[in-house]
Amino acid sequence: MVCEKCEKKLVKIATPDPWKAGSRAAAVKGPRRLNENKLYNPYSKAFRKCRICGQSVHQPEAHYCQSCAFKKGICAMCGVRLVNTTNYNQCAV
Questions:
Q1: Contacts of 55 (CB under 8 A, 6+ apart)
Q2: d(C-alpha 87, C-alpha 19), whole Å
Q3: Is the full-model pTM beyond 0.70?
Q4: How far is residue 63's CA from residue 30's CA, in Å, rounded to a whole number?
Q5: Inter-CA distances, 1 with 8, 14, 76, 88, Å
Q6: Cα(85)–Cα(93) distance, integer angstroms
Q7: pLDDT top residue among 79 and 59
Q8: Which domain holds residue 9?
Q9: What span, in angstroms and rounded, lies between the C-alpha atoms of 81 and 39?
C-alpha cells in the first residue's frame, strides 16, 4: 500500500534497459541479469529492513514491508495511515 504522494517517487522500474545486440557494452559486461531484482545491490543502503518485523524490504526507499503495511493500513514508504483498521481482522496469508 502506497499513498498518492509516494506514488510519484516510484518512477524507477526494476527491468533492464533495452538490449542492443551490437553494442560495445554487451561484450564488456557479459550476459544480462535474468530472474533477479535489478534494483537490488547487497552493498547499497537502498533496501532497508522493515521497522516492524525486521525483514528485508523489496521496495527502494520504503520503511515497511508490504505485509506489515497491509496489516497496519499504512503507506509502506512514509507510514501515513491510509485505512482505519481498528475493527478489522487482517490476515496476510
A1: 49, 65
A2: 50
A3: no
A4: 34
A5: 14, 18, 6, 16
A6: 17
A7: 79
A8: 1-15+22-93
A9: 27
Please state the three-class secondary structure of 39-66 as a single string.
CCCCCCCCCCECCCCCCECCCCCCCCCH
Which helix (H) or strand (E) covers residue 5, if one does? helix 4-7
pLDDT at residue 50, as a whole number: 94
Q: Contact, 2 vs 79, CB < 8 A?
A: no
What is the total count of domains within the chain?
1
C-alpha cell read off for 9: 517517487
- Output DSSP code: residue 7: H
Chain segment 3-48, per-residue pLDDT in tens: 889 888 876 665 665 666 665 555 555 566 677 776 666 676 667 8
Q: What is the pLDDT of residue 74?
A: 94
- Say which residue the cell 533495452 belongs to: 18
pLDDT at 89 (0 to 100): 76
